[in-house]
Design a protein that fits this description.
Layout: E1 12-15, E2 18-21, H1 56-65, E3 78-81, H2 91-105, E4 108-113, H3 117-121, H4 126-129, E5 135-139, H5 145-152, H6 160-173, E6 177-183, H7 189-194, H8 196-202, E7 205-209
Parallel strand pairs: 2-3, 3-4, 4-5, 5-6, 6-7
Antiparallel strand pairs: 1-2
This protein binds iron/sulfur cluster.
Pfam families: Radical_SAM (PF04055)
Protein name: TatD family nuclease-associated radical SAM protein
Organism: Kribbibacterium absianum
């Protein structure tokens, strides 16, 4: 996209009692179950398609101005970086916006991520995230590396799965909470149970998302 003026689309939107932040549509994966394939939005947003990445300034302004029928960031239980793309693809805006949330509202900050952010940015980004993020919620999707890649179809290929585990390990070392998530119905109960092992090893929780189509 070459549009560089005007607001690129919906940046902040409400899901439940959380304020969600949509910073990019870029993602190194092409998950078989990605919501982007079947719908335009999540929660109370109209559309999460952006004409380009959101700048740091736009993200801060959107957080300050957010008002969904009286619900503002001040009312949110947490601020979650999660949109139609991988938030760490737009790391500078993520860090600026999360720091602003901490400074202005002292809210809990979570990043929903595919765990490939250090590969995307070519360096270990967990120390930077730890300055303003409380929790990383990482899509594990499957406990087996080969099946993982079949499901997420990462452009990083076989590098993605070990990088995800390393990202979680480093996130924990840098003091962030970590949750590994799987999607109900995309894996068997036996495979779900096998996720307990990496979770225990890495000090992460396991959460099973309901499938949304
Ligand atoms: S990581 Fe998320 S945004 Fe990227 S393709 Fe998978 S489900 Fe979609």
């Amino acid at each position: 996209m070459s549009v560089t003026h005007g607001v690129p689309g919906t940046i902040v939107y409400r899901v439940g009692d959380g304020a969600y932040v949509n910073l990019t549509n870029r993602c190194p994966s092409a998950c078989t179950f990605c919501l982007r394939q079947t719908c335009d939005a999540v929660g109370r947003a109209d559309s999460l398609w952006l004409t380009r990445d959101v700048t740091a300034e736009e993200a801060v302004q959107a957080l300050d101005a957010f008002d969904d029928e009286g619900f503002t960031v001040a009312d949110a239980s947490e601020v979650v970086f999660c949109g139609f793309g991988e938030p760490t693809e737009n790391l500078s805006s993520l860090l600026a916006a999360a720091a602003h949330v901490k400074e202005r509202w002292h809210k809990r900050v979570r990043v929903n991520t595919n765990g490939q952010g250090s590969l995307v940015n070519g360096r270990d980004i967990t120390p930077e995230l730890a300055t303003c993020v409380d929790e990383v919620s990482v899509s594990l999707n499957h406990p087996d590396p080969a099946r993982y890649q079949e499901l997420v179809r990462s452009s990083f290929g076989d590098e993605a799965f070990p990088a995800l585990l390393e990202f979680v390990r480093r996130a924990r070392e840098n003091g962030m909470e970590a949750t590994l998530t799987t999607v109900a119905t995309t894996i068997t109960a036996e495979e779900e149970a096998r996720c307990a092992e990496p979770c225990a090893e890495l000090g992460a929780r396991h959460r099973i998302h309901p499938f949304v189509d």
